[in-house]
Amino acid sequence: MSEKLLKVKDLRTEFFSSKKSSVVAIDGVSFELEKGEIVGLVGESGCGKSVTSLSIMQLLKDTPGKVTNGEVIFEGKNLLTATKKEILDIRGGRMSMIFQEPMSSLNPSMRIDKQMIEGIRLHTDLSKEQARERAAKILSQVGIPDPQRVLKNYPHQLSGGMSQRVMIAMAMSCDPQLLIADEPTTALDVTIQAQILELMKKIQKEQGMSILLITHDLGVVAEMCSRVIVMYAGKIVEEAPVKILFGNPTHPYTQGLIASVPKLGSGVKVLPSIPGSVPDLSSMPKGCRFAPRCKYATDKCREQEPELLEVGAMQRCRCWLKQ
Ligand code: SF4
Q1: What's the CA-to-centroid distance between 252 and ligand 1, angstroms?
Q2: Alpha carbons 185 and 239: distance in angstroms, whole number
Q3: Of ligand 1's atoms, which has the minimum distance to the CA of residue 298?
Q4: How many whole angstroms from 253 Cα to the centroid of ligand 1?
Q5: pTM score, two decimals?
């Protein structure tokens, strides 16, 4: 039987502008991740993907955001009721994260060796020397040809691709069970992007960890993931194994996203796009949140919100057309 590594249940995160006034950024998000699987979390910017990952990682502290409902069960423990120390032990150790922009995650005033050794020693019993050895080994695993030299570098001395490799090495340095990768290759050129994705896949296979891959790029999802969760305006609107989602997308938003992916040799000169934009958090439409952009919208859609329901084998969809 498959084992669940992460269970997110009915997660709600709000952003407060004052004590009484808030907007809901993610609303009732529930999903699970099994050990060793790569799941894609997709949607346009502003759909709540990154807020979901920051809520899971408990990294909202420096923002006006707060998780106001739900559970995040990681390896059987609810992170939302865990102590600060328990969270610090888990984060960077059993669970780690890679961000889109490595330069904003690496400390510019600290050499790579110091940053990596500190991180490793925080989560292991290794001596400084042993931690240094592990850092060099992981840098070489992520394809850095001269790890000893890179360890002595400051972040500004590294190229974009190299910094991203260092970030991956840092995230992997304590053998995480779960890696949350938020647009890990968006800032890189396509060749480096392909190399980094290949590398993540290789490490994932070797170490059997799970990855939650946050991206707006469905091509990356097709390449990397076994399952996909589609978010729109703070809610999950569809979830399915990759093959089913690409072969038979059931939600009009997913259909729009897939139609807008260029296909080699299709001869299509102008790709269709979804009209309009993601609604503002402060003025969510009544009923189905996708209704203002949906060509199938009816009065019922504009009045009542559909639930996320099973529509087939391992496929869930939030649309009145399927209920
Ligand atoms: Fe479109 Fe209605 Fe389905 Fe929403 S519920 S996606 S508006 S058809």
Answers
A1: 7
A2: 23
A3: 2
A4: 9
A5: 0.92
Place of tokens 């490595």: 102
User: 303 alpha carbon to ligand 1 midpoint, in Å?
Assistant: 11
Of all protein residues, whose CA lies closest to atom 5 belonging to ligand 1? 319
Question: pLDDT digits over 276-318, tens only?
Answer: 999 999 999 999 999 999 999 999 999 999 999 999 889 999 9
| pLDDT in the model for residue 2 | 64
Ligand 1: list residues with CB < 6 Å.
252, 288, 290-291, 294, 296-297, 301, 306, 319-321
Q: Phi/psi of residue 15, each to 5°? A: -110, 125
Q: Which atom of ligand 1 is nearest to the CA of 302?
A: 7
